[in-house]
Amino acid sequence: MISFALDEEQTILQTTVRKFAAEHVRPNLRAWERARAVPDEARRRFHDLGLALLDVPEAAGGAGAGLIASTVVHEELGFGDAGAAVALWAPHLVPAALLSLGDAAQAAHHLARFVEDPLALGAVAWSEPAGAPLEGFATVAEKRGGGWALSGKKAFVVNGDRASVIVVFAQVEPGRGWEGAGAFVVDGKAPGVTAGARHETLGLETVAASSLALDGVFVREEDRLAAPFVDGARRFFARASLMTAARQVGLARAAYEYALGYTQERRAFGKPVAHFQSIAFTLAETLMDVESARWLLWRAAAVPDGKLDLSHVAQAAVHANEAAFRAADNAVQLLGGAGYVQDYPVEKWLRDTKTLALSAPTDQLSQLAVTGLALGQPIDAGLPSSALQPIYT
Amino acid sequence: MVDLQPTPKQQQVRELIHQFAAHAVRPISLQADRDHKIPDEFLLRLAAMRGAMSSGEVPAEYGGEGGGLGASKDARGRSQQNRFTLLSAEEMAWGDGSVLLSLPGPGLGGPPIQFMGTPEQKKRFFSIFQDQEKLHYGAYGLTEPGAGSDVSAIATTCRKDGKTWVLNGRKCFITNGAKADWVVIFATVDRVLGRAGQRAFVVEKGTPGFSVGKIEEKMGLRASETAELVLDDVRLPEENLLGGEAHYAGKEGFMGAMKTFDSSRPVVGALAVGIARAAWEATRDFVRENYVLARPIPRYAQLATLLADGARMIDAARLLCWRAGWMADEGIPNAKEASMAKAYAAKMAMKVCADAVQVLGAHGLERSAFVEKWYRDIKVFDIFEGTAQIQRIVISKRILKDPPSF
Questions:
Q1: What is the CA A103 to chain-centroid distance, rounded?
Q2: Cβ of B204 under 8 Å from any chain A Cβ?
Q3: pTM of this prediction?
Q4: Is residue A127 domain-shared with residue A102, that is, in the same domain?
Q5: Which alpha helices (DSSP H) does B331-370 contain, by range?
Q6: How far is B46 from A16, CA to CA, in rounded Å?
Q7: Between A7, A264, A369, which is nearest B1 by CB?
Q8: Residue A162: CATH number of its domain
Q9: Is B372 designated active site?
Q10: Tens digit of pLDDT for each residue in A249-267?
Q11: How far apart are CA B183 and CA B186, in angstroms?
Q12: Are A21 and A74 in contact (CB under 8 A)?
């Protein structure tokens, strides 16, 4: 039955995280951005909320709260500040990777660390520098006594220079494309793992991203994730997309509410600027973007059996990216000069939203996915990205 | 619990209506557009189907169907009527927008009678729809030549002469106005009083002085009747004043007019979604049949983006409509959400229909391809039931703390 009502547990989570975001995140947004990190103390405080494995099923050692709950939490953190939302979420995409590509025992084994250690960070390394093959990875995994040896270069790895658990996507059978790929859990301190210099980025500066070099890194057989790669990778990118979309909805709402408040305080020509139709109508349009993005996201996440509809996920992702970009851009515009200076948060969100949008499958890939699924066949876009569709959709 | 799927039973009824829309409505759609009329025998068939698909504007206690087959109550005994109406409206509009607007019944005249009418008035005006041998309509007369968006500016007057009300004025763009058995007419006792001076009456067909002016010829929705109504010293008994005198302490007349929109605007949004979906499906099929095998590669990414944007925005609009309908069913004030649903859906549908004509190229201009009709039909969704601009005013007034009058 069509209902937009959160249940009691979800409402409590929403209230708790909203309060945390208001008290501990928003006031520190500039300090943390300048420090290019969230302090350990904040990590510990956030860890105390016990959300680290929120949407991980109980069988895998998590709280089993489901995707709607996780969507609500990420929206509230994103509302506090998108950079902090990513940085505070210590396991990053490791739970998504383990749940999508591993079995319950593997997930339970590797995720336990995030419950025990508030400072443990996770990373998932899939992107590679230019020159990677159209299908599959240039990073290879070769069989070596009782396990695998990983060698190659990864790019844009969030937490790549500081993660204790890194899931690496690599080619197991060269020449077999995505079908021949696999995923491996690597200890961040394992011999042969070398992080490159941290990237300086457009936004999300509280989040560290770097390249990662692997030189014959040994992985035990039991740490190769068990599920077939193509289906697993699809599920992984779908979960990553939902998480990013939820943060974008939070960012969009933050920008909208900030502009709504500011334009009612700021006066020009004898009245609050929000009392001019051009301003008020922009706010009205922005609210339509924010709410429609949230409902598309909820529709994608409201799957009781956890079986995601990839077209719904892709739609939610694109809509949230667009809504957040427009909301942040409108906020900067409506604040005018105040929007452009760092005394106000909105310029940060305009930088953050673009960075977030590139941290999950791009809108271009998602669009191809929606149409490909509607037509019942992949789209030949004449672009290398068409080769990526098998795993992104 | 968050659940954005209809119940299995609603899904069944939705499918039933879809089959009817596909196999009965679509085949008459183009001819009805040409004739500016839907055949009476078809409309009688529709009247008989009301039980399945009606928006439930005739409450069950007055002999109506009370909300259609799919509008059963939820576990807490709350009606799902608004949500179900949105589902059925979308499917019917997918078949043809004019047909749905021509569905026999009280139409937009239903909500004001439900919100404002006395039990006697509800019985009197709703009971006529029990007769399924003949076509019966209600209508809603608010707009005037000099008062469209600015509803508070209506100039049709009402004055008391003993125990009789006397109405004078003109109403225009009234859907089903000429064929209606009765029309809810909004009039003012004194324009100086603004909204507080407004009264709502039910004027029955055949009342002396009440006549039909011209029937409009329109860009789209041609099969739906749009009439001008003339009130020339129309004398009405007190029983025709909706809600009775006591109802009008304050702004009740105007609020009655506005409250109608809280439930009707999401439905208008759902109609736009239905038409947009029809146009999008035509575009998808055209692309699949004409482009994919020929592989003109540079076109693909553009078409893929266009189709994906369309699919996404159609779904976004539908969810905004459902949200507003859910709030109405839950008894949560939803004026802002109703306006957002209608404004977003209309704008989205304009784009999707224009894109359909564009992708089909010259074929898109051909009448037999349907999309040129939907392109004409959809424009009015940005205009009726509150223009795009009025929706933005409604939303703005509800998000600002201390809103101006705009």
A1: 22
A2: no
A3: 0.92
A4: no
A5: 335-360, 362-365
A6: 52
A7: A7
A8: 2.40.110.10
A9: no
A10: 999 999 999 999 999 999 9
A11: 10
A12: no
